[in-house]
Amino acid sequence: MSQYGKAEYWEERYTRDPEPFDWYQRFAGVKDLVQGCFTPESKLVNVGAGNSRLSEEMFDEGYQNITNIDISHVVTKAMQEKYKDKGPNFKYLHMDARAMDFEEGVFDGAIDKGTLDAILCGESSSANAQKVIQEVHRVLGPKGIFFIISYGLPEHRLQYLEKPEYDWNVVVKQVHKPTISTSIAITNEDKDAPNVHYIYICTKGQPKGAKQ
């Protein structure tokens, strides 16, 4: 599935299939963990939002300050039209998560549902994944939280998240995969993994090793 790391693949896919699609989890599956990390007042960025309903469902739960970014022009334009009545703080922007056009420290939280996983399928995967993580770290405020929903086992993800240059503490949670799943693993990495998705909660300014 190396095409998942290519922008051209997503342009073609969203042109061919504009219907909403959610990798891994809907909001209901991670709601309790999200509520433990963010308040309705939190200023959030959804990295690689695609046409997932996650942000829409969060909006309906009161999280109405969400900036959604995606590398696909096609999906960004479609989502801008779909959600044009949601208000000025719920927006979709065409943007590469490896080089975000935001000032430093402007968000309280960042959410990633499958974006790092997709990047890790592509060419220069490790370097590109690291660029995304560096950018997320940069745009988060002093107590910001990076909330990652992934199929990747801790032994495959913590090597990217627990680098010395990141002043955050990483806590790993698990949620059960939905019974009817659109959450097939992007690669064979988790073919022997339990029937769960992993939630990586990276909290800036929290002592490393602290439990959440």
Automatic annotation (TrEMBL):
- Single Gene Ontology BP term? methylation
Where's the Methyltransferase type domain?
46-148
Q: Which UniProt keywords apply?
A: Methyltransferase, Transferase
The answer to whether the entry has keyword Methyltransferase is: yes
> Single GO molecular-function term?
S-adenosylmethionine-dependent methyltransferase activity
- What superkingdom does the record give? Eukaryota
**CDD domains per the UniProt record, alphabetical:** AdoMet_MTases (cd02440)
Mind telling me which residue stretches traverse the membrane in this protein? none
Query: Which Pfam families does the UniProt record give?
Result: Methyltransf_11 (PF08241)
The keyword Transferase is assigned to this record = yes
InterPro entries tied to this protein: Lys/N-term_MeTrsfase_sf, Methyltransf_11
Instruction: Give the family from UniProt.
Output: Belongs to the methyltransferase superfamily.
Protein name (database record): Methyltransferase type 11 domain-containing protein
